[in-house]
Amino acid sequence: MTYRRTIHSTAGMMFCLLALLACKAALAAEAKRVLLLHSFSREVKPWKEMSAEIHTELARQSPWPLDIIDHSIVTARSEGDKSEARFVDYLDALFEKQPIDLILSIGAPAVVFAQRHRQRLFAATPMVIAGLEQRRVQPSLLTEKDTIAAVAADFPSIIMNILQVLPDTKTVAVVMGNSPNERYWLEVLRKEYATFADRVSFIWSNNLSFEDILKQAAALPPHSAIFFFLMNVDAAGVSFEGDTAMRRLYAVANAPIFTHDDTYFLGRGIVGGPMHSFVNTSRHAVAVAMRVLGGEKPSDIRAPPVRFAAPKFDWREMERWGISEDRLPPGSEIQFRSPTLWEQYRWQVSATGAALLFQTVMIIGLFYEHRRRRNAEIEARQRMSELAHMNRHATAGELSASIAHELNQPLGAILNNTETATIILNSPSPNLDEMKTIVDEIRRDDKRATEVILRLRRLLKKTVPEMQNIDLNEIVREVFRLLSVQAAERNVTLNSRLAQEPLRVSGDRIQLQQVILNLVINGMDAMAGGRREVTCSTSVDHASAKLSIADSGSGIPSDKLSTIFEPFYTTKGEGMGMGLSIARTLVEAHDGRIWAENQTAGGAVFHVSLPLNEAN
Question: In terms of domains, do 180 and 314 share one?
């Protein structure tokens, strides 16, 4: 029993499915034929964009395939057109054997034509009256086959909007043509705008050719505005399609332009305000058409008219005419606003800002690090200066015997000359010439002693480095004179092989003396016995002055050549290991370099290279 029920149930489902598919196939085979009647032509505003939108909406909303036929009522351009009868004959022959399922008339001229010839052409065909203002509908001409998808225009709100956004307005020029449809609206506007007579004056242009209208628009008085209503056919009988009239008016007008239909808002020239939305109007008309095609009785459909959409304004025209955003009606939408840099390039600006911020942080960090390093270098130089000063004090202690010997010679000579002068002065007849000679010798010896003391004071004094143009050979000679006694006591021979020409370098005399002192004393300390010689030579090496100090000691271990200039490195039991480090620091402060190597014949040699002055 269960098995049989399952078979019956499955068969029933298959039957329903096949029936549904058959219905769909039959429905798809029955295409609906829709006639679109256009006022003037499909390219005439304000119905141009509406016609295109209706085509789009019919394809979107219809559940049936549609055969859409478009025809334009070109005879609506003027009254009494004798060609209308022939156009009616053409339509009668066209639809005699292929009846229409629905007429969708767009605009008042198309509706007037359809109603005038309805009994002959479309007596049994339902019609949706769309794209016209509700005041153009004539109820006495409606049949039970007719329904309305109209719009309701609030023309006074156009003037109220002008006065709100431009309160100084004194004149409004109404631009419109002279076709029968436009003459109808001329009378409507005159009546409705009479209430504004105490605030603005109106200029009506329906009786002018469009060329004269352009001249008028270019010479409007100050504080004027233009209300562009329609321009289908001007007073000279010239018809206008598309945006031709609007573009030409905008090109010459000296006042802001307003309108009641947003099809003109799509281009450039309309300031904005409350307007009909062709999108809303088209969707409303197609929705009513679908109800009629779906089987509803047209006369039973009571669709409310479509009113003005929310106000919208063109930002470009607001900027052109100096209209503040604060003056716009509540709920207004602003279009065509130029996007800000942030809105247009948000990610690029964010990335650039992040990169700039990162670079700023890096630069600040580098500046901080540079400053910290500079302060550290200054502090290091100060500490090194302190160590150099201490090193000079220590060196001066080692040179005390030499200094005492140098002072004893001039002081002893002064004493002898003084005693001799006393004897001469006590004699019965003093020899004045001999006294003059003794006084000259005393002066000379005094200068010698003074120079020794000055050299010692300069060596010991803590002063700021002073860069001077000095002769490197002269520095060597001063150091050798200072070390002569100590070298003699230690049985060391000091040899000098100096360049014949002066070697002018830019440097601090005391610091360079200290470098040579340290190197010579290190050389004397490095020699234990046998031949004990320290040789100092100078020469020109390209653009540098080269100083070499060699000793006859045992040399420097090869594995220590790269470390002897490091702080605290020493081979002396009582040494601090700062002498060579201080020497390197002082040489590098003079933009020079110092290095050491072993001689083939034995002993070490230290080289110092300093830049020569250009005048050398």
Answer: yes
